[in-house]
Specification:
Blueprint (H helix, E strand, L loop, with lengths): L14 E5 L1 H8 L4 E5 L3 H6 L6 E2 L7 H4 L6 E5 L4 H12 L3 E5 L2 H7 L8 E6 L6 E8 L2 E6 L2 E5 L4 E2 L2 E2 L10 E4 L9 H7 L5 E4 L1 H7 L3 E2 L5 E5 L2 E8 L15 E8 L2 E5 L17 E5 L8 H11 L3 E5 L17 E2 L6
């Protein structure tokens, strides 16, 4: 070990250690560490350390969001001042905390890389591991759990935003909801696939691609140890829009990962079947009429599903900024998917 084994400040099991850029980089690669960027969402979106989640230390819900974090955490801000505030609160909760001396400014000055890919990290209810969710672009999501990597609707480029899949892990599982170009990208699928990848798609995508496992609404699959899947309906209901996503063709997915339950809605409006979805921890709901939902429909859908955490996604140019204020009791997180 390097200086990471040095004495900590603090008392009892709580400890804080301010470390150099190189020492912090060593901490980051450990599998048992929660890496937290405690700056504002705007600062985070402009660039952050890879795999860091954003929990603003000055936000009203900071204390609530760090309640479930235990073990070891690594924190940073712009220059090191705000992260010391966060470190003190985490240490008071019993964490061992590493604080980046000089913050992200020191990291960049040392020539270390940053990314704009946004990450959220969730602890499972039964303490069976962490689930990392990365916002890629539009409807493209990457999920990591227990050494496995899952991609949902991976797409290489939309507008000016590109995803370089050559720098990312190969897929253990790929899920595709339907055949529209912003969800089904053969180049991305080929880039991510190995001979061990499980490719799960709706029947039309399997027909187009020539391989993969076709599942339709209502089908269930066990994908790996601790990971199961249910395909659920996703379709349009508004007159004049029915042709975009006809009922019965496309999939949404319920993904059970460890003891967490995720709902990835795909392209859909606020359909009656949403009322049947129970115990959803994390939901991804689309928002861009005429293809999916208006903000008003998304709010209605969120109230039907009632997830603990909601990610509006697929929103294009739609203004989703007013959604959080309409959903008291739901943790709404708006990420830069576009």
């Amino acid at each position: 070990m390097t200086m990471l084994a040095a004495l900590f400040c603090g008392c009892g099991n709580a400890a804080v250690k301010t470390v150099s850029v190189n020492e912090f980089a060593e901490v980051m690669i450990r599998g048992d560490v929660r890496l937290i960027d405690v700056r504002t969402a705007k600062e985070y979106a402009e660039g952050h350390l890879a795999s860091a989640e954003n929990i603003d230390v000055k936000a009203a819900d900071f204390a609530e969001r760090i309640k479930g974090i235990d073990g070891t955490a690594a924190v940073y801000c712009r220059s090191g001042k705000r992260s010391m505030m966060a470190a003190a609160q985490l240490a008071a909760n019993g964490c061992t905390v590493y604080n980046l001396d000089g913050g992200i400014l020191a990291w960049q000055k040392a020539g270390k890389t940053t990314t704009t890919m946004e990450t959220d990290i969730f602890a499972t209810h039964m303490d069976d591991g962490l689930v990392k969710i990365h916002a890629l672009t539009h409807a493209s999501i990457c999920i990591e759990y227990d050494g496995r990597t899952i991609y949902v609707d991976p797409v290489t480029q939309l507008r000016e935003r590109k995803v370089d899949y050559t720098t990312m892990p190969k897929a253990d599982i790929i899920l595709v909801t339907h055949e529209h170009f912003d969800h089904y990208d053969t180049a991305a699928i080929r880039q991510l696939t190995t001979d061990k990848t499980k490719l799960i798609m709706n029947p039309r995508c399997v027909e187009l691609y020539g391989s993969g496992t076709a599942i339709k609404n209502g089908d269930k699959r066990r994908l790996a140890e601790g990971i199961t899947l249910v395909a659920v309906p996703a379709y349009n209901t508004t007159e004049g829009h029915l042709q975009f996503h006809p009922k019965g063709r496309d999939n949404g997915y319920i993904l059970n990962i460890g003891s967490l339950r995720l709902y990835i809605a795909g392209d859909t409006e606020d359909i009656p079947e949403m009322a049947d979805l129970k115990d959803i921890d994390i939901a991804f709901l689309p928002c861009n009429q005429p293809y999916t939902m208006t903000p008003e429909q998304l709010v209605r859908a969120a109230k039907l599903v009632n997830p603990k955490v909601l990610f509006p996604y697929h929103y294009g140019d739609t203004d989703v900024s007013g959604i959080p204020a309409q959903l008291s009791g739901i943790d709404v997180r708006i990420r830069h998917y576009e």
